[in-house]
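Each record in this resource describes a single protein on a pair of labelled lines. The shape at a given residue is found from the number at the same position. The record below illustrates this layout:

***
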Amino acid sequence: MPEGPAWRQTCKTILHKLAGDDIVAYFGFLPSLEIYQNSLPEVSLHSNTHIRISSAMLKQITTEDELAFIVFHEISHSLLGHNSYETSSKDNFGLDIEREADQMAFRFMKSAGYNLSAPHHLIKRLGEYEFENTGLTVAELHPTLLKRQSLLQSYASEEPRLTSS
């Protein structure tokens, strides 16, 4: 993955592949993207339009296809009306809303011509990421990660209807 200013161009390319020249018309908003310094691999959506990707997450992303999944997943949260306060106890530790965002992101990836196995590979790698000096993995702290990995693998191999069932 490109570092420095090149990641911005890669993100613009990703959005253009799906939405064409009028991103605002396609999504209803113009997503803004930011890389911030953090030793934990995280991605978050703020104010329904601002995607923040940690420097540690950027290091985990190895292809444009994986970055496309991350960007499309966060945009999907916005389009689906999810917010950061509606997770955990309400829906199976966030699995339901993560699954919805994964499904929409997968559709976006397919429409834009991205590799549909990339999300599974990224989530698998994230699940194995070990926090420095703790012995804890991301999968141990995010109980939905392994289930999402399995779902993403099935999306890529079977190309199902992508319903929530």
About this structure: Residues 6-158 form one domain. The helical segments are 6-19, 23-27, 55-60, 64-79, 95-112, 118-128, 138-141, 145-158.
